[in-house]
UniProtKB/TrEMBL annotation:
Pfam families reported for this sequence: DUF3237 (PF11578)
HAMAP family: UPF0311 (MF_00775)
Name the record gives this protein: UPF0311 protein FPZ12_023595
Signal peptide limits: none
PANTHER family documented for this protein: UPF0311 PROTEIN BLR7842 (PTHR37315)
Domain of life: Bacteria
UniProt family annotation: Belongs to the UPF0311 family.
Transmembrane segments: none
């Protein structure tokens, strides 16, 4: 370290020897832990009429208001508040993308901010999506969500009035 606790840009920085030794596999190489998915919650989100944002350099923009919904799961329960939108984009390559930002109020009154991005695939069986939700939480019971690595799935609700999502936490085991 340089004076004042700053890193010396010319120095070589190595991970702690204990971490490296603990993760070496056969032949001295590092081993990767297996990954597991844990269900956080299922969401049923209702939506309003899309607003056409027209053609942009990035693609065709549609803003879809989020009008409410439910959150039910082993780690998170509550409601989706009627405050937010999906800033959907039909990219030049024909792939629809999702960029949704909205609020969840948990069953015990804590407000969480969700930013969920991903892409939609349209196939013979219908549309489905893969997303990477990020949840911002205040200090307290839900603070673990700030650092959680989450993945999600998305499918339209029957009748077209919304979407069903599942959020899973990725864990190394």
């Amino acid at each position: 370290m340089a004076a004042g606790g700053r890193r010396n840009p010319g120095a070589v920085h190595r991970p702690a020897a204990g971490f490296v030794a603990a993760h070496r596999g056969e032949g001295g190489s590092m081993t990767h832990p297996a990954l597991a998915l844990e269900l956080v919650a299922r969401l049923e989100v209702t939506i309003g009429e899309p607003i056409d944002g027209g053609d942009t350099p990035a693609g065709r923009r549609r803003v879809i208001p989020i009008t409410g919904g439910t959150v039910a799961g082993p780690l998170l329960r509550g409601e989706v508040l009627a405050l937010g939108a999906d800033w959907s984009l039909l990219r030049g390559d024909g792939v629809p993308s999702v960029t949704a930002k909205y609020l969840i109020r948990t069953h015990d009154g804590v407000v969480l901010t969700v930013t969920n991005t991903g892409t939609i695939t349209v196939g013979p069986g219908g549309a489905s999506g893969l997303t990477t939700p990020k949840i911002e939480a205040p200090a307290g019971e839900y603070a673990w969500l700030n650092d959680a690595v989450l993945v999600g799935t998305l499918v339209p609700l029957a009748g077209g009035g919304g979407v069903s999502l599942e959020f899973h936490r990725v864990q190394a085991g």
